[in-house]
Amino acid sequence: MQNGKNSKNKGKQPNLSAHPIAISVDTGEPIKEGYRIKDDPILNAIKDLKRMLGTYKGNLLYVSEEGKARFVERRKRFERYMLVAVLFAVLIYTIGVLLPLVSGDFGKALNMFIPSTVLTIVVFFFVLLTYVPSIEDEISQVPKKYLADVFLAKGGKEGKLEESKEIKKQEEGKAKRAKAKAKSKRNDTKRRKLKEIEKQEKQGSPRKKRKRV
After folding, report:
1. How many other C-beta atoms lie within 10 A of the C-beta of residue 194?
2. Where are the domains of the chain?
3. Mean pLDDT lowest for which of 48-52, 91-95, 158-162, 209-213?
């Protein structure tokens, strides 16, 4: 009996925290800093469905700095698909319903309304399967009440190890951002100097011509 209980416990995954936590959607792991995912009607509908099914945990969703570029690309792809779906729906209703109504063929318009609606629903359904939410523009720290117990635990090797890893990630991210800012500043100063040199050359050119004459 004890062996059976132990085998069942091994099959279950341990809970990261007893309370709602912040999770990185690109890694599936707890996070201390990242880009917060924005709420929208589609995401709220997914949350409501999970509440009805009893699977909603109330976790905050973030995207890590490492996975931001790939996540943004997936979001842009979803937006393109959604735009194509909207244009397709407008085209279908224009040809199938609006044109017959304008020409006075109400019977054809009524007959085409249901097939046009069904086709539009099918197209939007497949587009929604590729749904990717949008994220905040700026990176932010996770509120303390949503931090996983792994980060909050000061004692124990696991908590310290995870905390040191996160601190390293944050420091590396800050260093990268600082380097990028410094590089942009250097480029700006170079451009300004070049512009000043060009101005001076333009101002000095007519004087040279006069001396030659």
Report:
1. 10
2. 8-65+139-168, 70-133
3. 209-213
